[in-house]
Amino acid sequence: MDAKWEVALKNVARFLMLLAVMVMAFGCYWVRNKFGEITWEQLLFHLQIAEDGLADADAGLVRSFARQMGWALLVTILLMVPIRGYASVGRGVAGCLAYCRVSVRKLYLIVRDWRVLGLMLAGTLLFAGETFGALDMLGRSDQGELFGKHYVNPNTVELQAHGRRNLVLVYVESLEVAYANEKTFDRNLLKDLQELPPPVAGSRVAFSDMYQSVGTGWTIAGIVSTQCGVPLHSVLLGDGNKQGEMVSKFMPGATCLSDLLKHHGYRNVFMHGPYNAFAGVGTFMRTHSYDEVYGREFWQKGYASQHINGWGLYDADLLNEGSKKFDDLVKKKQPFNLTLLTIDTHGPDGFLSPECQSMGYRGFNGVVECTANKVAKFVRHIQASPAGKNTTIVIMGDHLAMRNPVSDILAKTERRRIFNLLLTPERMSPAIGSVSRFDMLPTMLAAMGWEIPKNKLGLGYNAFSLEAASRSKDWQQQLEVIAGNKSPRYLALWREHVSKE
């Protein structure tokens, strides 16, 4: 090979290697700054299953990431181009670089050393691994079929639906109990929600500790864990032959809340602000018996642009639509499950709607408070309806908050807990105060008046039962291991059919 070509190829290789280092370093910094802690499972899931929705992400985030990659490229060029090469970009730049020529020259010579480049690449790989939780995955050991030993397939349980009560289920983006701390936030941002009264002759239940287990820490994982009683793990790398089937149908082998309700004659309706494609939400709803699914695609037909933020329809409008849909469903004289998912409190900055601004709310605290108040108004609308006497209402955060303007404050909380509230038409007393996300599947059914033999579905226990109260004191620690076990029985949930066992 010609000596000049050999030198050129080496320079290109150095440039690409340094560019990879800078892209990873700047990219990981951007992720940490915008989202905080991201799990390896979460990353794989969005890359493998939810890829169709990535293009529909907040345009502001996309532009921010593009700028970050631009900086990575610029720094790479500045470090790799010889000092004399800067003269071509103008006297001003050349003069500036000449002023710090010694330092720049040293950096230029250092980054041309293959050993230094190798160390930099290894360092950024470790940084990326720590950022996305990949290093934690290395520490997991094979626990055999732990998941299968503890999983109760809802399809095998003879459930009794007494009363056929309606269910209204509201997932509030990133809602934590800590927002109610007056000392931390100067006022109780969740006051309206916490002051909602119980139904006449009914109960108001708020579990003191709803904790977040492995495989439940982002929106679709929060939905899957509470409706199906199982964690959400990425499975495609383990079974490439099934990739097409897995992407087209979301955990088809699992029997979830909406499947059980559909089997007993319920109508399932889901409403949220973003595109249905994002994070596989629409695919999950279609796979699991939701009859109507409303997302940004639908709202754009009837709402002007000022009603839609970077992710989708503002919460105030979504909850107004939820009230209308509740009234329409009541008229149909068919039991129903109306599920809503809010978006305004989504990180990294949240979205303050024009309606909330006109009411005097300001900043991210105002976003949280306004959304909480709008949810409370939605609940009061339901309670004022005659059908409210036969409706169980469940409100909960979809997961703990990720990176947002007050995440440093939240991080100082001694024990972070997910907000939850159940309003039931009959008097009920919880047997436990600490619940996992998986417990919500049987617990919600029990709050609707259903009878559950042995009081367990999926990995969760009915929190109103003696079985839940009799769990061992270290159950939460055991559950982390069980839920993290990606066993053959868990992988079977992603197959087209799972036979009764």
Question: What does this 3D model show about the protein?
Answer:
With 501 residues, the protein is an alpha/beta fold. The chain folds into 2 domains: 3-138, no CATH class; 151-392 and 407-427 and 436-494, Alkaline Phosphatase, subunit A. Helix content is 46%, strand content 10%. The chain has 24 helices and 13 strands. The chain has helices at 3-35, 40-48, 51-54, 59-80, 91-99, 101-111, 114-131, 134-138, 146-150, 182-185, 191-194, 219-228, 243-248, 257-263, 281-287, 296-299, 315-331, 354-358, 363-384, 407-411, 440-447, 466-469, 475-483, 488-491, and strands at 160-161, 166-172, 203-205, 209-210, 267-272, 292-294, 336-341, 391-397, 420-424, 434-435, 450-451, 456-457, 460-461. The strands form 4 sheets. It has a 7-stranded mixed sheet with strand order 3-9-8-2-7-5-6, with helices on both faces. Helix 15 links the parallel strand 5 (267-272) and strand 6. Mean pLDDT is 84; it is low at 50-55, 237-246 and 497-501. It is a multi-pass membrane protein. This is Sulfatase-like hydrolase/transferase. It comes from Chromobacterium vaccinii. The chain crosses the membrane at residues 12-31, 71-94, 114-135.
Number of helical regions: 24
Q: What is the CATH topology of the largest domain?
A: Alkaline Phosphatase, subunit A
For CATH, the homologous superfamily of the largest domain is named as Alkaline Phosphatase, subunit A
The CA-CA distance between the termini, in Å, is: 66 Å
- Major sheet attributes: 7 strands, mixed
Write out the strand line-up for the largest beta sheet, numbering strands in chain order. Answer: 3-9-8-2-7-5-6
From the helix content, strand content and strand pairing, which structural class follows? alpha/beta
In the residues, how many domains can be counted? 2
